[in-house]
Amino acid sequence: RIRQNLREKHARHIADLRAYYDSEIQSLKQQLEANLLFEGLCNLYVLNRCEQLDAALNEASARIKALENKNNMLEKQVAEWRERFQALSSTSKVLQERIEEMRTTHKEKDNTISRLQSRLKELEEAFEKAYKLSDNKNTRLKEENKMFQNLLGEYESLGKEHERVKDTLNTTENKLLDANTQISDLKRTILKLEAQLKQVEHENTLKLRH
After folding, report:
1. pTM, 2 dp
2. Can you give the pLDDT at residue 134?
3. How confident is the model at residue 58 (pLDDT cuts 50, 70, 90)?
4. Which residues of 26-61 are buried (b: 16+ CB within 10 A; e: fewer)?
5. String of DSSP letters for 67-124
6. Residue 136: strand, helix, or coil
């Protein structure tokens, strides 16, 4: 009986141990399944996050490339406008020098015309005086009349030349005014392009930093 009691007690003890360890094993299995499920969800989240970051990186790279292309295009435009501005500045300088030369020539022609007018007036007075003094000095009068006609022809020629110089001077001044207007427009355009270039460079810097 004692042996039987010990055997039953031992059997109960073994059953309790088996039930305890079975419960522990079941609990560990549940924890392992929960950990595997959590790791799977974490891996799925990380994978989705990586895909999102990859898409954002591709978009940022495309945007940076577009900004770089726009930056290069604006730099080319600024260089072209600067070349045009320099060419127009040189043309304006040449036109200004030519106008100054024409003004000097015009002033000299005016002085020559004034001298001829004074000389013509003196000859007219001398002609009238000689005509009043003697009617027998026809030869002298003819010579003076011929000189008078020559001076009159030279005066008319210089007057025409003076008018042509004035017309040429007005045309050149108009061209200079147009050139100065174009230079002002080019200056405003260059300032605008440089502002756009700085803005694009700033956006590019922000994108690269991001």
Report:
1. 0.42
2. 61
3. confident
4. eeeeeeeeeeeeeeeeeeeeeeeeeeeeeeeeeeee
5. HHHHHHHHHHHHHHHHHHHHHHHHHHHHHHHHHHHHHHHHHHHHHHHHHHHHHHHHHH
6. coil
